[in-house]
Amino acid sequence: MKLLEKIFYFKGEMSMYYKRNESYRFVFNQPVAGKLTKREPNRKITADVHVLDVSRQGAKLYCQNTVDLKKNTNISLSFRLNMTSFDATGNIVWIKKYPQTSELGVHLHTDDTYRETMTKELKKIARQER
Prior knowledge:
disordered N terminus; 60% strand; six-stranded antiparallel beta barrel; two-stranded antiparallel sheet; single chain; 1 helix; Thrombin, subunit H
């Protein structure tokens, strides 16, 4: 079960258990510009997105409704943190559609190098925001 916390009731008391091995999620103060690419059989469609938050294997994105996106669609995501580029393939896990925009949750297929570099860059950003 991938919950950040589990709540247990024991003898009428509520206690919380935090799973220390769960992935973190870093929420940006200012969204980060990126590109989302959807591959179709005879073409690829690219849309501008804003990365709202990111983890080692996923991201929450905001985009204009210029691309017809559906759950489980295979995508590529590209964005920069500081001077480092991040490129990963993945799939859409959830979509919240609004009249002119959408929010997307994506699962990214990442390797150890991607995850280590991501952690390093997010630590730099966290230090800069203090």
